[in-house]
Amino acid sequence: MKVSDIMSKKVITIRSFANVANAVKLMRDHNLNSLIVERLDESDSYGIVTKTDVIYKVAAKGLDPKQVRVCDIMTKPCIVVNPDLNIKSVAQLFANTGIHRAPIIQNRLLGVVSTTDLLLKSNFIEKPSAVLIQEQIEQKIAEAREICAEQGFASDNCAFAWDVVEDLQAEQAHQQAEELRQTAFDEYCAEHPDEEIWRQDPWSYYWEDEELPV
């Protein structure tokens, strides 16, 4: 099976000179943890900006997201994947680099693949997806707790680990047609009341119901 068989073809992109407030609005509106940053021209590279970038590079520093550009916090060039690459190779790439999602490129942007896509859409395991995803959620929660205990609650790896858990829980809720009212990360935060800033929705750190232009 190739990565083109499991990739998500709907990709939300943003320009590098857009401000972070607009990036946050796009992520909120489309329930995403990351956006692909558009190329300036055909010779340029794609970039990626994530929720973690916003939290650690903007929110944690008390910066105004309307005054910070996406290009200031994005990763560029980002790791890209060829659509003909097999699933095992993509999984190895993710494991070796620690990334959770990557754009699929072949002359142009075709889609995006994430760890959730690898887990739920590929055929490398025969178990029903409902059983598989619950097992993975439990495993990733344990891993996230261990990472945060060892490296600190505000470490990048801690945030990345909980991103994976939240992606899986969101997919599980979608499959079951249920609303995800509390994530494992919310429960973990409740156990650590001293880390107040990280208990908040990273988006509500700046706004309540403020409308932001795209």
Describe the protein in words.
This protein is mainly alpha-helical and 214 residues long. It has two domains: 112 residues, CBS-domain; 71 residues. 44% of the residues lie in helices and 11% in strands. It has a three-stranded mixed beta sheet. The protein has a two-stranded antiparallel ribbon with strand order 4-5. Helix 6 packs antiparallel against helix 7. It is globular, with a radius of gyration of 17 Å. About 2% of the residues have low confidence.
Uncertain parts: 196-200
> Please, what is the CATH homologous superfamily of the largest domain?
CBS-domain
* Mean of all residue-level pLDDT scores: 82
Share of helical residues: 40-55%
The first-to-last residue Cα distance is 37 Å
Q: Write down the overall geometry.
A: globular
Number of helices: 9
**Main sheet characteristics:** 3 strands, mixed
Q: What is the CATH topology classification name of the largest domain?
A: CBS-domain
The structural domain count equals 2
Provide the gyration radius in Å.
Answer: 17 Å
What is the oligomer described by this structure? Answer: single chain
Question: What structural category do the secondary elements indicate?
Answer: mainly alpha
- Which sequence of SSEs, written as H and E, runs from N to C? EHEEHHHEEHHHHH
- DSSP strand count: 5
Biggest sheet, strands in spatial order? 1-2-3
User: What is the highest CATH level, the class of the largest domain?
Assistant: Alpha Beta
CATH architecture of the largest domain: Roll
Strand proportion, as a percent range, falls in 5-15%
